[in-house]
Amino acid sequence: MKRFLGLIACCAISLGVHAQVVDTTVCDVLKDPASFNGKIVRIKSTVVAGFDQFAIQDETCHHAVNSIWLAYPEGTKAKSGPLALLQLQPAKNFAGAYTAPARTPVTLDKSKDFKQFDSLLSTPHKSAGMCLGCARYLVSATLVGRIDGVASAELKKDAAGKLVGLGGFGNLNAYPARLVLQSVADVTSKEIDYSKTDAVSKSEQNPDQPTQDTIAAAAAAAKSAEAFGPGTAPLAAIQRAANAYGKPKEDNGVTIGFGPTAEAAVKYDAQAPGNSPDGVIYNCTFNAGRLQGDQMTRAVVHMGEHIANIRTPPAGSFPLSLYESEFQGWVTTIYNTISNGQKSLTLSGSYLLWNAAWAADQRDKELNETLSKFLAEEQLLSR
Question: Whole-prediction pTM value?
Fold first, then answer.
C-alpha cells in the first residue's frame, strides 16, 4: 500500500511539473515580461544568431525590441551563440540599490534535437570577404525554458550621472525577457541566400588567424583611424571606442573574456566583488574561435562604442534605445572597416553594409538605408 501511495505521489508531482509549462508567444511575453518571471514556458518561434544577437523573434510584435534573448544553462558548452556580447554588472561601489535575483536552476535536455539546433545555429556562412556574424541558417523550433523577465530593460542614471538601474538581459542588458533553454523540439531550418553579397566580395580575402589580444586590437584600430586625418569624425569615433578599454593593466571596470557567449552565467546576477570608476563592470565576452582574422578588431571597436555610449555619452543622448546603440555601433565599425582598406562588409541575413565600389556621393545613403533595414528586419528593433 505504501508503495502504491508513493507511486501516486510521484505521478502527481510529475503531472504538476508538466502542468506548470505555459504555452505562450514571444509577443505575449513582451507585453508584460515581469509577469512571466520564473515561469516555464513553451514557445514556437524563429531563433536568430548574429554578431551580437541570440534571440527568439516575432515580427508581429510592436515593441522597441521584438525579441526574447535566448540563453543556455551555465556549463552547457554549446557551439552556438553571438560572436560578441557586452553584459553590465553592478560593482561593489554601485550607486543604486541591488538585490541579486533568486532563480530556479534549469537543466538542459541535450537530445538529438538540441544537438541539431545547436549545430544549425553555429554554422557560419562562408564568404571570400568579411561576413561578420553571418549565420548560414534561419532556425525555427519549439522551445521550452524558464523566462526571466523585468518590467523595463532601460538603463537609468541618477541626477549625478551615476548608473542606478541596469535593465534586463543579453547584449547591453537591453532585452526585457530572457528564455533559459530546457528543451527543444520540431527543429527546422532555412538556408539564407547570400548570393548577391557573395558576388560583391568574391575577389576578397579574409585571413583565418584570429587574435585574442583585445588591447592590441583596440590600439591597432586607433592607429589605422589616423588615415582619416586629424579633426575628422571617423577618427574621433574610432579612438573613443578604442579608449573605452583603457590602457594595458589599467583596472577601469572593463573585463575581457573568451569563451561561451550563450550561457546564463550565475555570476553576472550577483554584485561584483570589485569596484569600478562608475560603479559598473562592463563584461565583454568574445567567441574568439568564430571571429576569424581581422573580425576581432571589428568586434572590439563595436563593443568599445557601446561601452563609451553608456559610460561617457554625448550630452542629452542617454539612454539610447537598442536601435540607436546598434546604429552608432555599426557606423563606427564601418569607419574601422574603411580605415583598414577593407572593400566590403556583410552582416547576417545578407545585408551589405559597406561596399568600396559605391559612388562617393551615394555612400551615406546606401549605408543608412541598409543599416536601417538590417536593424528593423533582421534584429526586429524599432526606433
Answer: 0.92
